[in-house]
Amino acid sequence: VQLQASGGGLVQAGGSLRLSCAASGRTFSTYAMGWFRQAPGKEREFVARSSWSGGSTYYADSVKGRFTISRDNAKKTVYLQMSSLKPEDTAVYFCAAEVVVGGGFNYWGQGTLVTVSS
Hints:
The protein is mostly beta strands. The protein has no helices and 11 strands.
């Protein structure tokens, strides 16, 4: 599984941004996908998770109601729509794949930088 994240950039507080993560390799539609982020000087943290079908999603409390994870299995792509962005959302965002159910996220993309200015 290879993952390529894109869509990061500079945005003002209150603005919106959509990240994309394109997958290649094994059957995308069979595994869960997630987004994580790592702010400068901090540990990587969970942001959102989508089941293989997209029918079940889960969010960190810090982004709940502002971020939406979705996926298009035909395009082998997962998205993270981010709205009402805050400066504390500034981080490198990573997409990840959970190929084996319950096996954890063991495939990672290279990350895309999101900077939110105040």
